[in-house]
Amino acid sequence: MKESVRQSLNWSWMIAVITLVLAAIFAIISTSVLSGVAWGIGMLIVFIIVLTGVIFDTIGVAATAANEKPFHAMAAERLPGAKQSVHITRNADKFANFCNDVIGDIAGVISGTASAYVVLQLAVQMGHGEGSTVQFIISVIFTSVVAALTVGGKSVGKTLAIEYSTPIIYQVGRLFYLLEVKLKITIFSGNKGKKKGKKKNKRK
């Protein structure tokens, strides 16, 4: 088996386990937070979850769109976060996979579950039980709004990610720098090959 295939399979297994754990944690937290709160607060929480998914999707796209050259110039000037930004661009595939597929998809699933809870709570408060026509209408409207905000937000986020990939990734790099300095947490270690390497010169 090729080394690249083996590494890809190892990453897939690891990211699957991480997704399982994070999804369980987020589900428990969202359920606990939504339990007993008014439907208005619950709706706000749903929108925050949607916004979280949009933000991470934007960051993931920015990582794939960014070029590492500007960050080398920043690193030469010893700007905090520049070295971390280089590591992000060199690991753009894994970084984008985590942001877009793991956090983004989890946010989508959790927002759907939370939406159903909020809709049911609102319907009950209006005097209509589960399965009623009013509950169905509210569910359709609220689900449509959440879906529109998710898709529209990610569309805008992708445009911003492509246009402002360098400043976006630099801000993430600065966050990683603070994690390394303050909490001694290293997100990316070691050097992967350059994102856009030069072609080797052929001998005559």
Describe it for me?
With 204 residues, this protein is an all-alpha fold. The chain contains seven helices and no strands. The longest helix has 34 residues, at 92-125. The radius of gyration is 21 Å and the shape is elongated.
Please mark out the parts with pLDDT under 50 across 5 or more consecutive residues, or reply none. 196-204
Classify the beta-strand content into a percent band. under 5%
- Can you give the helix content as a percent range? over 70%
The overall pLDDT, averaged over residues, is 85
Number of strands: 0
Q: What class do helices, strands and sheet pairing give?
A: mainly alpha
Largest sheet: none
- Tally the helices: 7
Shape: elongated
User: Any idea what the radius of gyration is?
Assistant: 21 Å
Distance, first to last CA: 34 Å
Q: What is the succession of H and E elements?
A: HHHHHHH
